[in-house]
């Protein structure tokens, strides 16, 4: 055991690292999420099925190559805890960790096509300033570190700080978002297979609005990954 390990153990007595899923103390070899929570993740395996629920929800709305989510979002679950830590408790490392976990799954799958680059769903600058980070970018960083493809975080921007989406229908959500996004650098995206990444799939209105902008760039192909899927 190195001196650094002893120092880390000493610090953990006073400032323990807690699992983002269950809140228990992490062991030395655990990173952000404990082994027990990882083992119990409600994985979807959507990447194995082109006819999965997420893909079906997006059919007819825009053309995409593949669409999948890592886990099911369920209220009162450890996934809800992880998402809450990621979005509201200033723990972007939870998104990075979950992105890495999903990337290992995708990277070993023969059914999943590796894109050229990753574009996270952007936050409006005002919300980004309030939160301090973009949770979708954190997930993207985790994916990219394993898939070894670049993340382009500033090519798609949010130009409208739209009103809350809560209690809106799918059509109302799309109308609320359809002019909210803008592509700053079309040259870098032209002809690329783009992986569009978001945190949670609910109605898909945000993904639809972003995809419409990205598909307006010549020669682009879109794939979708979200961390969680709401049934």
Structural class: alpha/beta
Amino- and carboxy-terminal Cα gap: 46 Å
- Major beta-sheet overview: 4 strands, parallel
Q: Give the low-confidence spans.
A: 10-14
Determine the strand fraction and express it as a percent band: 15-25%
- What is the count of helical runs? 10
- Helix percentage: 25-40%
Overall strand count: 6
Give the radius of gyration: 18 Å
Secondary structure layout plus pairing:
Blueprint: H1 3-14, H2 35-39, H3 53-58, E1 67-73, H4 78-88, H5 92-107, E2 117-120, H6 125-131, H7 135-147, E3 156-158, H8 170-177, E4 181-183, H9 186-189, E5 193-201, H10 205-214, E6 221-230
Parallel strand pairs: 1-6, 2-5, 5-6
Antiparallel strand pairs: 3-4
Helix pairs in contact: 4-5, 5-7, 8-10
